[in-house]
Amino acid sequence: MLLKNAARQRNLKGIACALLTSSALVLPAPVAAQANKTGIDPETWTPEHVRSIAGKTTVDTAAECSKIVPLDYEGELDYWYVGPNEASPQLEHEMYEEFWAALAETYPNIEINAQNLGYNDMLNKLRTAALGNAAPDVARLPILWGSEFAAKRQLSELSPEDVGYDSDDFWPGAMKSVTLDGKTWGIPTNNETMAFIWNAGIFEEAGLDPDKAPDTWEEVVAYSKQIKEKTGKNGYGLVARVNAGNTPFRFMPMVWGEGGGALDEAADSPTYQETWIDSDGTRRAVQNYYDMYVRDKSVPVSALTNTQTENQDPFLANQLAMVIAHPSEYATMLDRASRATGSDKEAAMEVVNNMRYGKIPKGADRRAVVFGGSNVHIFNPDNIDGDLDMEAAKALICFMTGPEWSTKLAWVSSNPGNTRGFETEWMKERLDTIKFLDVSTSMLPSGIPFPPVAESPEIMNIIIPEMLQNALTEKMTVEEATADAERKIQSLLDGM
Amino acid sequence: MSRPHRSEPSSRGLIGQIIDHRWDYLYVLPALGVMMLVIAYPIYYTFYLSFFRTPPSLAMSEKIFNGFDNYATVLGSDSFQQVTWNTIVWTVWSTFFALILGLGAALVLNREFMGRGLLRGLLLIPFVISAVAASYIWRWIYHSDFGVLGAVLFDLGLIDGKLNLLDNIDMVLPSLIVVNVWKEFPFAMIMILAGLQTVPDQLLNAARVDGAGAFHRFWHVTLPHLKGVLIITVLLLFVQNLNHFIIPWIMTGGGPAGASDIWITQIYQIAFGRIRFGIASAYSVILFLVMVVIGYFYVKALTGDEDRQAH
Questions:
Q1: Can you cite an annotated GO cellular component (chain A) (predicted)?
Q2: Predicted ipTM?
């Protein structure tokens, strides 16, 4: 299968996958397994490689989409998405405005009723709307959410081929997230991995090498302790709030790195039927959290109620040394710093200048990161409000998932889901203007997608954060907390 | 078309009485229809759904009948005992302190003094402010790392480290109760103030002439007059607190480790976080039954008051 896929890859993935297929026999097992998950070889997908392929292709989006839906098509549809909010950099708002203007120019007779909903609100609203047969025609959802709607058959089948693209143009890991029961239920719009960000100034203050990130999770715990002891400032920006996407995105890389998992999503051939939560690997990860929060007190006390958004202020105020965040964090911090006034502005700009990006640390088993992003879906006609305008839906989806707009809409915060976007002039411009983008992009091959099962949101957003809170509040021991989580996940898999 | 007429009492049977009152029924029919649609049907559907298993992987149309299993799951779950205890603590203490504070404020505002109007306006602010906005403000006041309260206490030398209220399983519920009391004591104050203004001056003056001190006048004259208002206020506060969702949900989401989880946040979490509409419905039915019992006492208190007045 891998050989067959590799043979069909375009220029971009051809380089990487050819290397992968030829080297799979000699690569160390974790690397080969990792390549299996994403389709890209982590050894070759380096910042240099990403830069070398950018700017090689030009794209005419209108011409590509006109082959699917005529440009004079008249129609109307409802579209929900998680778009930029008040915390997003200005540039992201501008890109979305440009997108809507370009779409209106290309398809002037399609009326789109778009609703930008917040990450924390949209899932529940969509669940309720779908149950009440009032879902929108089209929705762009974070990668974790689609499986639940697909499992309930509230989505229509949709694959890249339906809008004129090739499934091989998308990351295999991302395609896996829209595949259930052998059918495809959506198209990836953007994919990203987070990066490890640190404040070189605080590192120096604490006697650490300012330009060297901790390479392992063990080092993160040790650095965090040293920073707290030497400077009084918080070391690592730990977050463990329940029902917030932030928590699993920051904790699961550590779990996978240490050899654990929620289900067996980190296995070479995951079945999503086994639980790995009560394993040595997961216990090591929970123990790391416990050591930082309870033993060393080297992280924010408010970690149990905080999300990463609340960590931005202390980071910018030079009071927090290390965080895991999106590729857009630099642009966000720069934006916030430029809005500060007086001496605050000077101090904030100094922190921004001291920001460094590195790969997510590795654990005893591997280096891993959540393969994140979003997918676009068309809802089942039975679950939407009114009639589904399939042609209008395809026009919108073709436009947004093409190489041009999947790159531009991901400008500061992500990467194009359509990997042809990596070859465009816009990708080159991004790499030239967005600091550290190449670092976070080079982490993509280390990405592991959350399990594409209907139970994923509950496991990741509730059971795992609860496990952390049980251990961090000492309501349970680390062993009891992982055993409790195992019992809950098992009961979920048993269909309770 | 015949004109509607005021019905006279009739000695006819039930059918006859209905016929006599046909116009009255017609007048309330639209309101009844709306109530059936928005109240009765959801209640019926919640009861119905409580007998089905609805795992997240199944569409609602594929739900599986499982009898009373959902009730057994709720009552037998590890968290039920903790959540129920939290709910009792939250409801009883919120009601008690809001009533005491409201009573005190009402007694003060019932006296004439300069600036009374301004003070009354100021004390009403927590009540009129949006609960969502108030929750966010208090979340920052309490914030374990950068909270205003912790900073002030630290500057005053009253604490020597961080003030951990929301991230501490022992302190979180009392801290939320403080916010809730702050938010709802003006309601009790207004209710009691209205009641105080019905206490006859003659009785108070007579008691004063008879040598009764301030405490005795309050205890033997004012309080008996407030009895009805106090009962209604307690019941309304109790119901309101039992159903209060916004403050615990926004400030802590029921955490940490379930330490501030109460019935209503738990129901929401089960329904919309865990997509178990069947279990959430069973939980809701249990809460509904508790509310029915309280509602019975509420109606009894109301009608009892009317009955007393009628006699």
A1: periplasmic space
A2: 0.80
